Automatic annotation (TrEMBL), chain A:
UniProt cross-references to SUPFAM superfamilies, sorted A to Z: P-loop containing nucleoside triphosphate hydrolases
Entry GO terms, CC: plasma membrane
Keywords on record: ATP-binding, Nucleotide-binding, Transport
Stretches that traverse the bilayer: none
Species whose genome carries this gene: Drouetiella hepatica Uher 2000/2452
UniProt name for this protein: Nitrate/sulfonate/bicarbonate ABC transporter ATP-binding protein
UniProtKB/TrEMBL annotation, chain B:
Principal subcellular localization: membrane
Subcellular location per the Swiss-Prot or TrEMBL entry: Cell membrane; Membrane
The protein's name: ABC transporter permease subunit
Stored InterPro entries: MetI-like (IPR000515), MetI-like_sf (IPR035906)
Classification via Gene3D superfamilies: MetI-like
């Protein structure tokens, strides 16, 4: 990537990987990963950071050999990967423990598969259990353990295999704040002490602070389709001091990059935003951020109380205890609707946004409608379609079909649900779920409102 | 060293066997002796029509007969389990086999098992000439076909819904196919499999009793068992032995529940996929006893090396899949589909040709008309059972204390073989001059209505308390309360009950549309009676036509009605 590496140094190399899935009804393909090149070298911690839709989980599974790439190849220890990758062990977000096996049996699982004799298995498992601090829980069943302890078992199960690279798939995101903080710290200590059971770590996360805290290198993935936007080298002495100015600057920078899909990622200082010329596309091809109308107005009301209607995004995320995956779509929606602007890791309300956040419900709905018609082509297109119909209504399938052209069916349904939520809130149209039809709102209601 | 020489007082107190161990040893010996005694009876000489085992109506023989029937049930259960594991595994793991095996399962599930008896009895007798084993096997096969499809479906479904993360973990940790099967796939299917097996086993009593004394191809066969005991009492018009048989079957059902199913369910609870401890785990005193005893554990420990090397061997035989699944080959897939279609078409043509050349199109129309009549009966039954049992079930379900008390009772009633009550009902019909055309509805209901009650209770229990409080709070009463809260709340449970009840009723129609008391035989007009009569006289074309027609009815109604209701339940009325 940024420097030439000797071949022996590289543990896993992803070369020109594309991954696409067929769309339903043979409508072509949906690209999840495009032209990915990533390496994991010996002795480093690499974080894959991206928003939902960036394919970070798919990339991790491709590197683990659980998914095969459509094009390109993955090299592990210099050899092309075929089937599950022997050199890695994975820690799962959901722990993936077998509930009917004890802690020890769960940890021994991988060794058993390798045909390691029973006594040796026991010794090694006990050592790994000891390492994660679960001494005394060997014969407990997972359901007797708290979430944090379950994930410790997950770590022990991976450690016992002494893999070249330890893969972690959002390992702390299913835990509560304190537990995840504690476990993350312990893993970091173990790595810094130089006794870690693997040569490298690759962690997938959507928590920016977590990435900066744990990793030596943060690879930032862009969405739709997933691609490598660049990487940020965390040039801090281990362990990374959260209170240092450089740490904060790095977090701020990554927030800036992640809220501006068009910014080029460089390891150095931030660069000015270069607006890209948008190609005219079908209104249905432009993905809506999955945010509920209620979430949008809620967020705006929080920000409007800050001085100048401006807030620092990392601070906001921290205050709301929201992960990037949950917060950024709401911010995106606010930006898309013209209620807010985002720059340098800050969010600033526009005058319309300030108005929207402070006015009455009825007026804010009008504002929402006005902004939606102006800025969200899919909503105006849907309303237009309904107006053109004699019955002033349309089957939902019609719109779903249009969306199906551009997204896998599941995503198309989510897009539709978001569009319906916004359209309902904006009173652009109504949706009858039992009939599966969209209607124009009855004028009577509008009249009653005018009389009020 | 010292510690070894002088065991702690605690260890001394626990040495070496406890009362639990004595109980376990005695229980095991008793079980072995019972099986040996009962099993010997299956090998007696049998040369129809001269040497046929008789039935002694002395009630002292009842435990022996009941034992024979029970043994048959367990043998059938064993075979069902083996079949389930193999069929389910293949169907879930081979996309091509899946395309044949799953629809086939769907159809087999709808075929009336009792109509099959004629085919299987003749086949099995030919297979074991001169031994009672042939009849024994036919009876076991009847029970097998009544319970296996349910279990196979449950296993297949569990295999298809293994959580993705666990599946990935097993792949990444390179478990062999065998290890994956024993560590992930079977355990995650266990709870569903045990529940389904228990429910099917309950239904199996009906078939064991029905298959022990049957007339096939103008030949009456009797297999010693509680079912043939009832049949003999029936022929003699003797009520007292009937009463004894009723009592015996009740005791047997309770015993198998306490000694076999409860412990199994208590044990299977550890295979729950939820990662948190469940509030009320099922309990069983037998399971507690087995856990308290030290012998099972000692045995287990002694066998660990054997198990270990066996696992190792089998893992070697079924290694982890080397490469990833390749993308399906489109053209060879199309060819495969085409061949399948041709085979199905050939089978249908052969069947239709056979029926048309032997009995003609007129007979098909007759059979269809009879099918409509039986359909009317099934529908009437469902409506009445719903009207009667749903309010009662909801009342029970809303009262947790009552529900806990009555649920085992209802479960017991559901597994009680309804054909034991038939003689009493028949007597009643004869004395009150009720036409069997109406009476058969009652007979069919005797077995199947409990599913509606059972599921209504479960459905009512699943309605959250806050919704009920809300309904009271806003003043919903009477019909309003039913329409807005209760009916939508219990809808999915009712659909489950309805589909089971309707399947059971179709099957039961074969024995309920023809009933007899001594010399008097009452015959209703319907497809069930049609099949029963054809079976008795060995009229192959009519047997084929009758079974085919009934299967068509059941499959058709499943597609047209139940599947839609299921969909509605899942999308709209999901709580």
């Amino acid at each position: 990537m940024n420097s030439v590496q000797t071949a022996t140094d590289v543990l896993i190399a992803v070369e020109q990987v594309h991954k696409s899935f067929p769309l339903p009804d043979g409508k072509g393909e949906f690209t999840v990963l495009r032209d990915i090149n990533v390496t994991v070298r010996s002795g480093e911690v690499v974080a894959l950071l991206g928003r939902s839709g960036s394919g970070k989980s798919t990339l991790l599974r491709t590197m683990a050999g659980l998914i095969s790439p459509s094009q390109g190849r993955v090299l592990s220890n210099g050899k092309p990967l075929r089937g599950a990758n022997n050199d890695v062990a994975m820690v799962f977000q959901s722990f993936a423990l077998l509930p009917w096996l004890t802690v020890q049996q769960n940890v021994e699982l991988g060794l058993e598969a390798q045909g390691v004799p029973r006594e040796e298995r026991r010794q090694r498992a006990l050592k790994a259990i000891d390492l994660v601090g679960l001494d005394g829980f060997e014969s407990a069943y997972p359901k007797e353990l708290s979430g944090g302890m379950k994930q410790r078992v997950g770590f022990a199960r991976a450690f016992v295999l002494e893999p070249q690279v330890l893969f972690m798939d959002e390992p702390f995101s299913a835990l509560d704040v304190l537990t995840s903080e504690n476990l993350r710290g312990e893993i970091d200590d173990l790595w810094n002490a130089g006794t870690f059971p693997s040569k490298s770590i690759l962690i997938v996360t959507h928590n920016i602070e977590e990435g900066v805290f744990l990793a030596d290198r943060v690879i930032i993935l862009g969405s739709n389709p997933g691609q490598v936007r660049g990487e940020v080298v965390i040039d801090l002495p281990r362990s990374h001091d959260r209170t240092s100015d450089r740490f904060k600057a790095l977090v701020d920078y990554i927030y800036t990059v992640m809220t501006n899909p068009d910014v080029e990622v460089t390891s150095a200082a931030p660069v000015a935003v270069t607006p890209v010329v948008s190609v005219p596309r079908s209104p249905y091809a432009q993905a809506l951020p999955h945010a509920r109308s209620g979430g949008i107005s809620g967020l705006l009301e929080l920000i409007v109380d800050r001085p100048d209607g401006k807030d620092d995004i990392p601070r906001l995320a921290d205050r709301l205890q929201l992960e990037v995956d949950d917060l950024l779509p709401i911010l995106d929606a606010a930006v898309l609707l013209g209620f807010a602007e985002v720059s340098q890791g800050d969010v600033q309300l526009t005058s319309i946004g300030q108005d929207f956040a402070t006015t009455t419900i009825l007026r804010s709905k009008d504002l929402f409608q006005q902004q939606a018609l102006q800025n969200v082509p899919v909503l105006s297109s849907m309303a237009q379609t309904l107006r053109e119909k004699k019955s002033q209504s349309m089957r939902a399938d019609f719109f779903l079909d249009l969306l199906d052209e551009y997204y896998p069916h599941e995503e198309a349904e989510k897009q539709f649900a978001t569009a319906v939520d916004w359209g309902r809130y904006a009173e652009l149209f109504e949706y009858d779920a039992s009939e599966d039809r969209l209607y124009l709102p009855e004028p009577a209601i509008a009249q009653i409102r005018e009389n009020v | 060293m010292l510690r070894r020489t002088f065991p702690s007082p605690e260890a001394l107190r626990r040495l070496p066997f406890g009362l639990a161990d004595v109980a376990v040893i005695l229980g095991t010996l008793l079980l072995l002796a019972l099986v040996a005694r009962l099993g010997a009876g299956t090998l007696v000489s049998f040369q129809p029509p001269d040497v046929v085992p008789g039935i002694d109506l002395d009630p002292r023989n009842l435990p022996y007969y009941a034992g024979r029937s029970t043994l048959r049930m367990f043998v059938a259960l064993f075979f069902s389990m083996v079949f389930t594991l193999i069929y389910g595994y293949v169907a879930a793991n081979s996309p091509r086999a899946e395309r044949v095996m799953v629809p086939l399962l769907d159809i087999l599930q709808s075929v009336p098992v009792l109509g099959f008896l004629s085919v299987t009895v003749t086949g099995f007798i030919a297979l074991f000439p001169g031994s009672l084993l042939g009849l024994e096997a036919a009876s076991i096969f009847a029970i097998f076909t009544s319970q296996v499809w349910n279990m196979t479906f449950s296993f297949y479904q569990s295999l298809k819904t293994v959580p993705k993360d666990l599946d990935e973990a097993m792949t990444l940790y390179r478990l062999s196919r065998w290890q994956r099967f024993t560590k992930l796939e079977v355990p995650s299917a266990t709870i569903g499999l045990v529940w389904n097996a228990m429910m099917s086993f309950g239904g199996g009593w009906f078939f064991v009793t029905a298959s022990e004394a049957i007339s096939v191809l103008n030949q009456a066969y009797t297999l010693p068992g509680i079912g043939s005991y009832v049949a003999a009492a029936l022929a003699k018009q003797d009520l007292l032995p009937l009463g004894w048989a009723l009592l015996t079957i009740a005791i047997i059902i309770i015993l198998t529940d306490q000694l076999f199913w409860r412990p199994l369910i208590a044990w299977s609870n550890k295979f729950r996929l939820e990662q948190s401890a469940s509030a009320d785990a099922p309990e069983s005193w037998v399971y507690d006893l087995l856990k308290a005893a030290r012998i099972p554990r000692l045995l287990g420990k002694a066998l660990t090396p054997v198990q270990e090397s066996l696992n190792h061997l089998l893992s070697g035989l079924a290694p982890a899949p080397a490469a990833q699944i390749k993308a399906p080959n489109r053209s060879s897939d199309r060819l495969y589909n085409l061949i399948l279609l041709m085979i199905v078409a050939a089978l249908v043509v052969t069947g239709v040709h056979f029926i048309l050349t032997t009995v003609g199109i007129g007979e098909v129309v007759t059979a269809f008309g009879l099918g409509l009549l039986t359909l009317l009966r099934v529908t009437a039954l469902l409506i009445f059972a719903t009207l009667v049992w749903t309010p009662i079930g909801v009342a029970i379900g809303f009262n947790p204390k009552l529900a806990r008390l009555l649920q085992p009772v209802v479960q017991f009633l559901a597994s009680f073989p309804a054909n034991f009550i038939f003689p009493f009902a028949t007597l009643f019909f004869i004395h009150t001059n009720i036409s069997i055309n109406w009476g058969s509805i009652l007979l069919m209901a005797l077995g199947s209505q409990w599913y509606i009650l059972f599921n209504s209770i479960a459905g009512a229990q699943s309605i959250p308390t806050d919704l009920r409080e809300m309904a009271t709070d806003v003043g919903l009463k009477g019909w309003q309360r039913w329409r807005r809260l209760i009916i939508p709340g219990i809808f999915s449970a009712w659909v489950t009950g309805g589909v089971t009840a309707s399947g059971g009723a179709w099957n039961a129609s074969i024995v309920s549309e023809v009933v007899s008391w001594g010399q008097t035989t009452l015959i209703a007009t319907g497809l069930g009676a049609y099949i029963a009569e054809a079976t008795e006289t060995g009229d192959w074309p009519r047997i084929t036509l009758g079974i085919g027609m009934m299967s068509l009815f059941v499959v058709g109604i499943n597609r047209v009605l139940w599947r839609r209701l299921y969909h509605l339940a899942e999308t709209k009325y999901h709580l």
